[in-house]
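Worked example 4.2. Below are the chains of a multi-component assembly; read each line carefully before continuing.
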Amino acid sequence: MIVATRENIYGIDVFTFYDSNRNPFQLTFEESLNGKYIEVSLVHLLGSNDSKYCSEIRKAVSSFILKYLIEKRRTIYFDIAINDKRGLLLSIKFIRWLTSAKEIEYKIEVTKLNGIEYIEFFIELKKTTI
Amino acid sequence: METNSILDYLDNNNIVYILDENPTEEKISRIQKAIERKKTLMELAISTYKQVMRIA
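Applying the procedure described above to all two chains together yields the following structure tokens:
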């Protein structure tokens, strides 16, 4: 089981954790510029741009996001500019999680822009989730 | 079947979404700024981590 350390750095909630191969990751939750939602980002701290995050990472990230939603009761926002196959695969993985998670509801918006597809996710807890 | 567009995937899986094919100049500017900002923040996180951990 992956365990994260949590810090608040200049108002950003930062969860740092490692996979079983000791690859470091940071999951950050930051107030959006318009104050309407909280933006979430996942960074591989060694700079890998690989979207093939293993299932243990996906499970951990899903769990952290769900706990954060329960704690904050806010809308979580995530965006991906899909300009290559990796972006597409990452988007599909994220959508699979969204559609399988029973505790949340979501809105997806896709914008066509200069030959790329820009996808935005708005995620909230279902009203019935405690 | 290979998917080349996220729209194909969403359509094939009956997932509801909003599509904007003609974004306003204001929205285009917002998106371009968001993409740049995310890239900058990620690079900053990576370089900070490497400095702290003394990774070349």
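Take a moment to check your reading of the output against the notes. Chain B touches chain A at residues 3-7, 9-10, 13, 15-21, 23, 27-28, 31, 34-35, 38, 41-42, 45-46, 49-50, 55 (CB under 8 Å). The longest helix of chain B spans residues 25-53.
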